[in-house]
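Course assignment 3, question 2. Fill in each field.
Student: A.L.
Task: Predict the tertiary structure for the chain below.
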Amino acid sequence: MKKTMNFALVGLLLVVSAFTVNDTIEVDGYAIGDFASDFNLMSTTGNMVSMADYPNAKGFLIVFTCNSCPYAVAYEDRIIALDRKYKGLGVPVIAINPNNPDVQPSDSYEKMKVRAKEKGFTFPYLLDDGQKVFPKYGATRTPHVFLLNKTKEGNKVVYIGAVDDNSSDASAVETTFVEDAVDAMLAGTPIEIKTTRAIGCTIKV
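Answer field:
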């Protein structure tokens, strides 16, 4: 009986380790006030997408997310809601899958296309082919959000972190970090909380 329980415990630990939220990938990336470089990545619709494709945007919500992470999946509806709320106000969501599909096959481009269709994503869902973009931003988790304010000098990073303060229960959210930051940016008022700890799975490299 004891051996059976030990095997079950080992199996549980292996499952949890696949979606760990404690291990951190050490990458350099943008800080608040930095200007983010553009990208040109393939979307699930077969088109290449960059921020330059949005000449009238006032800013961008760049969200590093994926198919496989349960935290990312839990936030999908909230990310869709953010895009619906702010795209018309000039701040669209652009989602980027940073995972290496050779390491995490569930995050292959073909499976990204399936997921985007299943969920009815209202935003472009891009593959960070070769994993060249997420290290520049400094993303370490899925999901990990970067709010950019479009200025004459470039796309300025004004918020980095989590969508809100409850990754498990949308109905129990008390502080909507991203919404508060976007509202303040659009109103031209200071963003009170500029950085938070992103909660999610480590990016697979």
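Instructor remarks: The first helix runs from residue 2 to 18. The chain has a mean pLDDT of 90.
Grade: pending
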